[in-house]
Amino acid sequence: MRRPLVAGNWKMHGTHSSVAELIKGLRQLALPSGVDVAVMPPCLFISQVIQGLAGKAIDVGAQNSAVEPMQGALTGETAPSQLADVGCSMVLVGHSERRLILGESDEVVSRKFAAAQSCGLVPVLCVGETRAEREAGKTLEVVARQLGSVIDELGVGAFARAVVAYEPVWAIGTGLTASPAQAQEVHAAIRAQLAAENAELAKGVRLLYGGSVKAASAAELFGMPDIDGGLVGGASLNADEFGAICRAAGS
Ligand code: PEP
Predict the structure, then answer these.
(1) Does 77 participate in catalysis according to the annotation?
(2) Tens digit of pLDDT for each residue in 95-135?
(3) How far apart are the C-alpha atoms of 163 and 99, rounded to whole Å?
(4) Does ligand 1 come within 6 angstroms of the Cβ of 217?
(5) Residue 95: active-site member
(6) Which among 129, 167, 187, 241 is annotated as catalytic?
(7) 233 pocket-lining for ligand 1 (C-beta < 6 Å)
(8) Which residues contact residue 149 at a Cβ distance below 8 angstroms, ignoring those fewer than 6 apart?
(9) Distance in angstroms (rounded) separating the CA atoms of residues 85 and 104
(10) Distance between CA 107 and CA 99 in Å, rounded?
(11) How many whole angstroms from 212 Cα to the centroid of ligand 1?
(12) I need a labelling partner for 216 at 20 to 30 A (CA). Which of 71, 100, 223, 248 fits?
């Protein structure tokens, strides 16, 4: 039985004081005991959030980490070992905003995945198609390529300690959500691709849906057989909305 996970990606949002307010709101939430909950603040605020959420059952992760595991000469980057040192437990890898705006290739994504895992962080591998790719009927092909590149580089065994997030690019930050059936189709394909390599392992890998998830849409999405929770962007900046999404994952 897979334990649901809801992770909030705060993206490049927040100030010291708005983060303090959000921490206050998160501390007040009644969270379901059967759901893992995490937030991923901008790197700058990770320590503030870890301290502010001490004693609350919310993990803290990062939105990105370096291709190299250990600290060193790599200006502007954060080593996964540094994230682990301050108390992060997971990190997003290959978010579409990084693939599309910053040009992160599948190869870079695999290197970041491996570096993060070698430091004990759980990589959350983000995959998903653009609107043009969906309209061209290439959704499953694109997602299979993104996932396959990590499997080819690191072996399917790497997914025993990883999470995959299916995030259609056309649904991120747009208010458009994939229908539960559309999302389930891709999640089932992701699980089948993992199962083709290792059926037992595939049954245990958590697959999250991301793309304009709101409290109103969460329960139906999370009710699909291969959807094990959500990666939540905009809605995670509102503690009450985020709490309602977490509760939907527990229902
Ligand atoms: C995201 O950034 O991972 C995301 C899913 O954003 P949003 O929920 O705002 O679409």
Answers:
(1) no
(2) 999 999 999 999 999 999 999 999 999 999 999 999 999 99
(3) 18
(4) no
(5) yes
(6) 167
(7) yes
(8) 106, 107, 109, 110
(9) 25
(10) 11
(11) 6
(12) 100
